[in-house]
Amino acid sequence: MYKFAILPLLFLSLTSCEDELNLAPISEVGSNGFFTNAGDFEQAVNGIYASLGVTGGGDYPSMYVILDESRSDNIYSPGNAGVRDWNAINNFLPTIATLGTVERAWNIGFNGIMRANTVLDELAANGGVIGDGGLATRFEAEARFLRAFYYFDLVKWYGRVPLIETFVTPDEALEIARSPVEDVYALIIADLEYAIANLPAAHSGLDKGRATSLAARGILARVYLTRSGPVLHSEGPCLASGEYDKAAALLDDIISSNQFGMVDDYGAIFDYDNEGNAEIVWDIQFISGGVGAGGYYPTEYYDEGWARVNLPFAGGNPGDGSKRVSQDLLNSYEEGDLRVAETFLLNYVNDNGETVDAQFFDKYTDVAKAGGDRFDWSLNYPIIRYTDVLLLRAEATLQGASGTQESVDAVVNAVRQRAGLDEISGVTLDVLLEERRREFAGENLRWDDLVRTGRVVDVMNDFIATEDDNDKMQTVTTDDIIYPVPQQQLDVKQGLYSQNPGY
């Protein structure tokens, strides 16, 4: 299976260039004659995937935990001292442009884009050395898929971003302003359409885990659903484009492929010994024991005190920095919901023999599978699950795409049946979103769901009114839909970028 342990020396050497990564979204040093055969190109494509892992600058799924889940009503982490990035993000402080996570997510995204652009440039100039036109086309499709993937997250997090489609030097990057969201989406859609047309529907053997045409359809469906959302922020990711039918058609393609299905046991989806199960449309690959090949994201959720008792290494969220599951989320589960035990750890016994009220996500944690340290979890991170495909299809129907109320109810009831719950009828969009909240708790989809459907401001302010006993969270406005441009990016060249409103 394709894992992050397969890394090109070229890109491993480049990732140590911290000074360059702290400049605008610049590209690192070019290929230097590296691309001489098909193997070189394959290693370079692997380097684009590697930006998703620890070696890419901080474990990409960790960005989702902090920027998405910790921002949503699924976590309450005000922090008495408020020194952790996720405390400030959870509290909706306007002073977060200097946070390391806000900067790191920008840098990792553009580092991945740089790597993709380098491969694409070299394919155009020197792709003939591959000798296999079909393989060269696949490499281009993978590079464009990943470029689109990174850009989509950047648009959701920052709104307007620099649009860079080729290798640029640091000096050249300092002349590239932020582009309108519509222009960035145009590149994302073109890249994903190329990936859909030129990637296989599935991979096997050592290539399993690479991008597929069905994964590209899933990402593009999310793009159309997000673009279709109501415009609450003039520079945000939603454009009120009304493209629900386009999203529905792509999701139908995934469903009709018959390659995927709902796993009967909810917990089995996240079993370390069951990776690549029928639920997984596409995931980020990790493997324990390799240099920088494991994942850190499970560590983002658990408490330091729990780790001291249960794990052979230190790590986890310290003291008042705990990413505590909100009471609001826990209260939303019906009695007997089988997902609760698989998703949360509600208490543990610490090293003093005391029972600690914990309330953290442990969906991704298996003590028996702990690696060599807190950066070495081997569980692949699911980006697109089949249940997500089904529920997004139901959402598209409720937003006006083809389909019936009966089809929506059937999907939601299939999810509820697996959770051990009774059937319901007449599912509305709000009911669907609440079911998604419980189904994907800890999977970092909740914030996107609220933004995409235009509910984010009302839901979050209602949440603050009932949950924020510490009186730390600020009133949410439409400015909070996107993050600030990292301050370091503003400082590189005065006037190149303007800051997003509200920061």
Walkthrough of the structure:
It is found in: Cell outer membrane. Residues 67-225 form the SusD-like N-terminal domain. Residues 378-503 form the RagB/SusD domain. Keywords: Cell outer membrane, Membrane, Signal. This protein has 503 residues and is mostly helical. The chain folds into two domains: 9-294 and 383-492, Alpha Horseshoe (Serine Threonine Protein Phosphatase 5, Tetratricopeptide repeat); 297-369, no CATH class. It has 20 helices and eight strands. The chain has helices at residues 9-14, 18-21, 38-50, 60-69, 85-90, 100-126, 133-158, 170-173, 181-198, 213-228, 244-256, 304-310, 327-331, 339-343, 386-398, 405-418, 429-439, 446-452, 456-467, 487-492, and strands spanning 75-76, 161-162, 178-179, 280-284, 324-325, 344-349, 355-361, 381-385. A two-stranded antiparallel ribbon has the order 1-5. A two-stranded antiparallel sheet has the order 2-3. The protein has a two-stranded antiparallel sheet with strand order 4-8. A hairpin with a 5-residue loop joins strand 6 (344-349) and strand 7 (355-361). The model is unreliable at 3-30 (pLDDT under 50).
CATH topology of the largest domain: Serine Threonine Protein Phosphatase 5, Tetratricopeptide repeat
CATH structural class of the largest domain? Mainly Alpha
Shape field: globular
Number of strands: 8
The largest beta-sheet arranges its strands as 1-5
What's the number of domains? 2
Number of helices: 20
Which CATH architecture of the largest domain is right? Alpha Horseshoe
- What integer is the average pLDDT? 92
Unreliable stretches covering 5 or more consecutive residues: 3-30
Q: What fraction of residues sit in β-strands? A: 5-15%
Radius of gyration: 22 Å
Secondary-structure-derived class: mainly alpha
Major sheet summary line: 2 strands, antiparallel
| Strand/helix succession | HHHHEHHHEHEHHHEHEHHEEEHHHHHH
Task: Give the termini separation.
Answer: 44 Å
